[in-house]
Amino acid sequence: MKNTIIKTVLICIPLLIFSCKSDKKQELKNDEEITKTDEIKTQKELPNTIALNELALHPEGIVYSNETKKTYVGSYFKGKIVTVDLEGNMNDFIIDESLVAVVGMEVDTKNNRLLVCNSNSGLSKKSTKETIGRLAEVVIYDLTTGEKLKTIDLANLYQGGHFLNDITTDGKGNFYITDSFSPVIYKIDENDTPSVLVNDKQFEVPQGAFGLNGIVFHEDGYLIAGKSGKLYKIDLSNLKNVQEITLDKPINSLDGLLLIDNNTLALASNYFAGPKFDEAIYKIETSDNWTTGKVTNTFKDLAGVFPTTLTKINNDIFVSYGYFYDLVNPESEPNDSFKLQKVIFSN
Known about the structure:
By secondary structure, the chain is mainly beta.
């Protein structure tokens, strides 16, 4: 009888252990499902517009961080950076007197940093004659605290006018920056060493005009950069290989670029000088690794003026509006109703 009891207990122990493990697995599975459900719920609850209610903010660059769950918004006019969380709460993040006009920004996930293009076209309230068309800095901040970590001056790398416009990363610690006033793309490597990556005649523009603008990195080892209404593919393994991407339809102009996936690009088109046209966000797709591109959709239901930069928040694309015409029109009333808007393509 005693042996029977011992055998019964020994049989039950593994069964209990197995049962506990099964329960544990089920709990983990349930937790994962709840987390996924919460993430989906959060994504669905993002509004079509996110208010940026601050007088004369004039945002240009925006970038979302999956780590902090915040969107970083740079002010072109005030030279500062604010954050907006998923609930729409906006707060000052970086107040730095050295920032004149905040343009492109990129998150360095590897090192928990925010890289910021600091430029001056003459429209910032902190603009000076000495820095107009000359300022060319990438300023690096701690992504969490906003502490300034480093300033990298690119102005001496190329003799010419300067307006650092957009910045992208390959995810390995290398960053690539466009200069709208010079026909070059810069590189900052993983050791924060800057250099001229590409100098190409195709990027040249008349003095005073804007040249290179948006830029993105493609995981197949090349960059896509925009100038006026054209897109260019820059092979990082052969920097002399700069090819214009043939589009099936003309694009009036371009600003920010965003790779939705390897074969799909979103492009913000706006006007600032010259005749007005219908501003829009274009969806462009390729079937030949960006030798050519086809405009497959156009989003024109814009909630603002002068769409600039695009970023992806969760699975949604958002665009910022700069209202830059207000900065050169003395009759314009000060604006305090800036916003980010969700871009919803019809297909």
